[in-house]
Specification:
Elements (H helix, E strand, L loop, with lengths): L5 H17 L5 H28 L5 H29 L5 H21 L2
């Protein structure tokens, strides 16, 4: 028997495409073909991701999170140290002034932390 003529094969593929768009059942060979295409796309995407990682274009999310945690922890410590440093360089401020500044800075940091949750 052999293969059907090219025109019939093209029409068969066109019919598969129409059925796929309509959500109708697609013959098994069409399903296998679609599965192979999805696999090829996934493999290509995986390879592209690996290349981007090797080039340094992508970073590990855990590493980025750890770096930001370190940066923000340091920033918080430096902000909380301001009242003490200010007290040393401005002796005319009273203990009450320093406590008020400390309270305001802590409140601001708390508000920022609450905004991020």
């Amino acid at each position: 028997m052999g293969r059907p003529p090219i025109g019939e094969r093209a029409m068969t593929e066109a019919e598969r495409q129409r059925r796929r768009r309509k959500g109708a059942a697609v013959p098994a060979e069409g399903v296998a073909s679609a599965a192979r295409a999805r696999l090829a796309n996934a493999q290509a995407e995986h390879a592209e991701t690996k290349v981007k990682i090797l080039r340094g274009e992508l970073l590990d999310a855990g590493d980025v999170k750890a770096a930001w945690y370190a940066i923000l922890t340091l920033a918080r410590a430096r902000v909380l140290a301001v009242p003490s440093r200010l007290q040393q360089v401005t002796p005319h401020l009273t203990a009450s002034d320093i406590e008020a500044l400390d309270r305001e800075l802590r409140e601001a940091l708390s508000e920022l932390a609450d905004d991020q949750r």
